Amino acid sequence: MRQLATEPTSGHSRSTQPGGEELSLAERAYRGIRDRLVMLEIRPGAPIHEEQLAQSLGVGRTPVREALKRLQYERLITTYPRRGTFATEVNITDLAHISEVRQELEPLAAAQAARRATAADREALTALRRELESADPARQDATALMHLDLQVHRAVYAAAHNPYLEDTLVRHDNLATRIWCLFLDRLSDMAGHVEEHGPLIEAIVAGEPERAARLARGHVEGFERAIRAAI
Q: Rounded to two decimals, what is the model's pTM?
């Protein structure tokens, strides 16, 4: 992301991404910290240091504080009086609850994406499908594949054009991904899990809501089975 030339002192300044999307500094801080938490780059239980995060993200402490408020609501961090702020622990007992929500809402999002996706959405999804097809599991590590998995999920949610549904699913997918990352070294078919997105994207781009919903549900169910087998 390109930084502003001026000193980033508030969460209301804006920066522009290469694709032309403008992000407030608070949004930039939020996305950066969120993805570090989701991918366990900030380990569960680790303390959150505002100043270090601000420096590494190239923003001021105010945007970081604004981002942390959102991340606490999303259950990615927790604050203890007189102790400080920490990344939340990954609790495997949450898997059933998270999967219960995703099994209902992921198919809905996929179906709505098949109905509502714009030309730009379809183009973005098609580009992701090409990336999936060119991914070489022998050369890409599991973390890189997980980043690609996140991109696909977020693109599908955005293509559904329901901000409430998108917000809910992004939060639950983030929590599910943290569980997945915790067991990456025990999962034998990470590439196969990510490759399942190919037919799903195909169904959405082709405007086939029933098929998209069926594939999305199967993907979520497969995720839960794989995690339980790895425990």
A: 0.83
